[in-house]
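Section handout, structural biology tutorial.
Before the tutorial, make sure you can parse a SMILES string by hand: atoms, branches in parentheses, ring closures as digits. In the record below the ligand is flavin-adenine dinucleotide, and the chain has 280 residues. In the tutorial you will relate the predicted structure tokens back to the input. Do not try to memorize them.
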Amino acid sequence: MADFELVAPATPEEAIASLRTGPPGAVAVLGGGTDLLFDLEEGRSAPERVVSLRRLPWRTLEWNGNALTIGSTLPLRTLENDPLLRARIPGLHSAVRAVGSVALRQRATLGGNLGRSAPASDLVPMLLALDAEVLLLGPAGERRLTVDGFVQGSRRTALGPAELIRAVRIPEARPSAYHWQRVRPFHDISHMAVAVAFSPSARAWRVAVAGFPPRPLRVPEAEAALGSARPDADAVHRAAEEIARRAPIVADHRASEEYRRQLVRPLLERAVDATVRGGR
Ligand SMILES: Cc1cc2nc3c(=O)[nH]c(=O)nc-3n(C[C@H](O)[C@H](O)[C@H](O)COP(=O)(O)OP(=O)(O)OC[C@H]3O[C@@H](n4cnc5c(N)ncnc54)[C@H](O)[C@@H]3O)c2cc1C
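Predicted structure of the complex:
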């Protein structure tokens, strides 16, 4: 690992200022470090400065009525232990618990999961199904993007120069569920995952899939096929067919295309059934 300067600003303004020096790649942002430390060790990232976010006042979890705002540096384990999250957004609770091991979740953050933007992220598909927004802070102030607009591909996001993810806002608590398939739960990442939520205000389903490159994505045709709040078996079958038809499912070194396609229907059936019964 090459030498670098480590700074830990105490305020968001200082953090933004400390990101504004040097050419692209010269400065790296450190959340929980569960991804970044590998990148540093393996030379994928060789910054001159690492800006740790650990002192920023962003380890927050704020319910405002039915809406939830999660600070970007809150450890996932703290999020997982929130009883309201478990009761009110069960799909997000399951997705958080799907991320690695307890030890990993003690350090890993939501900001880091979005910043890494992995095709097999467990959190991005659930945030898509919840119509979540990413709140960004940079030299020009704050801006908001949908998660769909923020995540662009593997390790590619809409984050601008010297910008930070400050928080994620979920506009309403929804019955929801997250189901995934992988070989070894704590060590592997998902080969295929389905996130499902039902919006009480829009009376509409949201369905997102993940696990294969380039990125997690929503499948609006599957959402329309599910239709009513209590879809019957035919509707779920049609929705699974829409996913298989529309989602760009491919093979990679972790799973074949055929295997992934076979997983779509059982994962969707379980997720819809759980959502109709209140979630999980
Ligand atoms: C053994 C192992 C198992 C894993 N299993 C899973 C899994 O099952 N599911 C899953 O989804 N992920 C998994 N991961 C990936 C990783 O743990 C998660 O993506 C985690 O949420 C990253 O959070 P972090 O705070 O540690 O990120 P960091 O490593 O600190 O940062 C990751 C990236 O995001 C950037 N970043 C961090 N915070 C911010 C911010 N606030 N603003 C802007 N950019 C920021 C960093 O610069 C870096 O590029 C695993 C990783 C390991 C090592």
